């Protein structure tokens, strides 16, 4: 399920986009540089500009990257709100599991061997 929730990318889409190491490098570069073109990103990566463009499209569908045309080039910038929402979702999931594990531990401690 990689659709949207309330018009925003679902956490699954964000996680899938971030599963690729090149896409993580691209996102890191956009955050640290404040934006870049696919050409400038490709110069620092072991992939072609066309591959970078495809990775940017995946990041864009996940809502993590936005592009704006400036003359003949498209300048991309990181948009981290979907990542922040995904982090909150993961934190809630982890808390749910912690509660379940605590309940199991409590049950195990109640049972005494005969």
UniProtKB/TrEMBL annotation:
Matches recorded under SUPFAM superfamilies: Winged helix' DNA-binding domain
Any matching Pfam family: HTH_20
Domain HTH arsR-type: 3-98
InterPro entries: ArsR-like_HTH, HTH_ArsR_DNA-bd_dom, WH-like_DNA-bd_sf, WH_DNA-bd_sf
Protein name: Metalloregulator ArsR/SmtB family transcription factor
Organism expressing this protein natively: Streptomyces longisporus
